[in-house]
Amino acid sequence: MRTLAYALRHCRAYDFDDTRHFWHKRLAWNLRMSSLEAAVGRAQLERLDELIEARRANARYYADRLRNQVELLTEKPYARSVSWMFGILLPDEKTRDGLMRFLETREVEARTFFLPMNRQPIYKTPEPFPVADGLGGRGLYLPSSSHLTEDEKETVIRCVRQYLEKRR
Which residue(s) pair with 140 in the sheet? Predict the structure, then answer.
């Protein structure tokens, strides 16, 4: 364990060599926080419960108003989401991408779900992963900031409904 801790400490700080100043034997990064970043992080941690509840409220708001328009992701009974992102599932990739472009024209930022791990170049495999591929191809994240106003959420909902109505 000490070896791992030593290696991680070195890796997070450019992996400077212990015997020769400014000498690097491996690729490493500066992953240390500045004092300012630490202060902001600490202030955010003091508000963590409030920020999580705001995101959960956003998720409930979206879910209540979009329930009959899109497929919603459901929580498992044994896990409670912090709703850091609010994702919806659309019928297919074409619909998802069209909705994302439509939202963009109305200055609403949305993002696709993360590319499944089996599609990442480093892990790519010909083996099928239909659930991951299905979610990756149909999923779209809607704006989820803890600072969203009701008007901003209503704009997102109105745009999603408008686009889907147009496609029917």
Answer: 88, 112
User: Rounded to an integer, what distance in angstroms lies between the CA atom of residue 41 and that of residue 92?
Assistant: 38
Q: Residues 142, 122: contact at Cβ < 8 Å?
A: no
Q: What is the pTM of this model?
A: 0.78
Query: Which H or E run includes 41?
Result: helix 35-46
Partner residues linked to 24 by β-bridges:
16
The predicted-structure confidence for 105-124, as pLDDT tens digits, reads as follows: 999 999 999 989 888 888 88
Q: Which two tokens stand for residue 103?
A: 């939202």
8 A C-beta contact, residue 153 and residue 61: yes
Domains of the chain: 48-167 (3.90.1150.10)
Contact assessment for residue 161 and residue 153, using Cβ atoms and an 8 Å cutoff: no
